[in-house]
Amino acid sequence: MRRFFVSPEAVQGPRVVLPPEESRHVAAVLRLRAGDRIVVFDGSGRDYVVQLTAVAALAVEGRVVETRAGTTSPVQLTLVQGIPKGSKMDLIVRMGTEVGIARFVPVLTHRAVARPAPARGARWRRIAAAAATQSGRSTVPVVDDPRSFSEVWPLLEDALVLIPWEGEKSRPIGAILAQNRTTRAVAVCIGPEGGWTPEEVQQAVAHGAHPVTLGELILRTETAGLVAAAIVLYELTRRP
Asked: What's the predicted TM-score (pTM) here?
């Protein structure tokens, strides 16, 4: 069945009303009819199987016939991402959502060249919603508006914070995770194309972050966060 993301307000008890954009897709593109079934989710962690009762170009309605526990991760993983150039952040949000990242915090750093317009945050949130729909997630990650690196620390007070850095050679990310198997809140800080400055790493360490290495190879900024996220989620959710 096709999946659609809706706002919580769209699910009114057993009645579901799709927004105009999704209604057009159902009616004009998929050509579904009354009686057909779809799956909707509102980001709350549940999926709803909905039988369509009315299909029009701008208004599709249905009723919930089944509620399912959705697919969620027990680890709340935050990616603090130094904003890269061009459209790379679009890719990071899309693929990071598919991997299972719960929150994206784009940050302005010393070596970050990009200074995105405020509208980019709304675009990244749309990308996250679309990626969650495609990947079968029942939650949509939070995507913050850009902020300075020094402003992220109040957000991460309860998290295990890891900062991959090419200057760290002796502490693999897996070693830190092995010491924190029961942790359920993790943040990974990834620098932009030019990487972190030593001063930024020192700032992170002063706030309790652990510098780690992802291996001997130098990864692109759009690759490093995804690799780190996959390692974190695997190591903290696998059975001993």
From this structure: 0.91
